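Record 1 of the preview.
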Amino acid sequence: MLKISGKSGLRSTMKALVVILIILLLLIPLSMIRSLVRERESRAYEAEMNIIDGAGGSLVLAGPLMVLPYELDGKTHRYISRGEVSLLPEDIRISGRLEVEYRQRGIYRVPVYSALIDASGYFLMPGSEIFPEGARPLKDEFKFVIGIADMRGIHDVSDLSWNSDLLVLTPDTGLSSLGSGISALIPGSGAGPSGNKAEFSWKMEIGGGGSVAVTPLGRNSELILSGNWPSPSFQGAILPDKRELDDTGFSARWRIPEVSRPIQPWWDSSNTPEINPVDYSLRVELLEPAGAYTRIERSVKYAVIFLLIPFAVFFLFEILGGLKVHPVQYLLAGAADIMFYLLLLAFSEHIGFNVSYLIAAAAVTLLISFYSGSITGNITGRNRRSAASIPAVLSAAYLWLWVTLQSEDYALLIGSAGLFLIISLVMVLTRKVDWYAGESNRMDIGTEGNQGEPGELDVLFPEGEADDGNAHE
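->
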């Protein structure tokens, strides 16, 4: 068993406390780097929102509805009130194709899209039963309405095909239940008698970014969305019942029967709260894999471990190999470790996360390895070869962090396993150290009287000449 003299044990204890103090001191620049990562991420988010806003914002489309105004006599003949009834189509089918491309501003780039929308369906023309008693429907003011939250992204829109007529779609005043959007007046002859089937269709091209939210308001609805984006996130009130994903894009389909959501087939806007289309929207977000800032912030969470790894190696060399490392040398090695995260942040904004990680990890590994070589320059033999293990240890550590960052689903499992392995390795290497020994010799005298039982570094690196002991006091 490796025993430490009283004086050496006290020195080792003090060194351990100093190392812990240095680690706590290095947490200050680490917190500053984490703040810097968040600041840069916030700036990138602002740039992304500006790009998406310039492209037309996030598309929010709802409808269609028929808005049916009416007049109703008051208690006196001089008073006439107005109201409107909103009517859902019997059937609506909306298909959309997203053509996604990147748009760049400065060092930031964001996926934006041009959406090609094709919609068709039909209404059953209502009778007097949907209007208040005594109301007079204003058939010349019946409107077909499509709700669009932000109309700046509209590139093109066709005329509305209504039975055999073509009706011009114009900006809507926003007085209907759907808010702002586009609408077309339906002439009195186009409304037809009660129970008449009125078929409609229209096409449009609209740009945006970030996400697409569609609320098909039909008694029976179907939505089909596809695009050339490989990593969509399906959200909203209902998930698609069918979807396909591959490296070239996605396709998803929603079928929504009337019984699956609590929307009446018609309602009077004058005495019924307006519906909020967002509550029933079907949304696709253009989700990117964990961005550079997210992965950098995740890597900073492991920073304390990466401070401990070279410190633990140096400390083991001091305890097991007789190497003397000054606290300033611990501090400089820790500062080099911290530079990894700053280099990773700086490079990743220009050349991407993967290449940046390789450059930063290689630079820090070479720097610490070069510096540790100067620390061990005054020893020879197996201890010198033991010190040469530092590049391998650092490379393995950065490889472990890389795998952890790449695997979002198994990051906790990989990280926990790695920590357990590190702690286990330190415990194995120091299992024969008698921290309470008071003998003057560093090595225990074996049970058979043979002095110089091999230590842990001797077991790990048995080749070469034994250390001459000059490094010990």
